[in-house]
Design brief:
By secondary structure, this protein is mainly alpha-helical. The protein is built from three helices and no strands. The longest helix is centred in the N-terminal third of the chain and has 26 residues. The chain is rod-shaped and about 75 Å long.
Length: 56
């Protein structure tokens, strides 16, 4: 029975470490998208052409 308590404690410790590292990565900007805004101008947007047709 002691081994079950030990395994639960170890698994909770590992889970808390993973959660902490994930929160740290999100707060430090690891998941910020720096690439998409720079190439967004290269792609056609259908909404703008639909809006232009509605104005005419």
């Amino acid at each position: 029975m002691t081994i079950i308590y030990l395994l639960i404690a170890i698994s909770l410790t590992v889970a808390i470490l993973f959660l902490g590292s994930f929160v740290w990565a999100v707060r430090s900007g690891q998941y910020d998208d720096d690439y998409t805004p720079s190439v967004r101008i290269l792609f056609d947007e259908e909404t703008s052409s639909a809006q232009e047709r509605g104005k005419r």
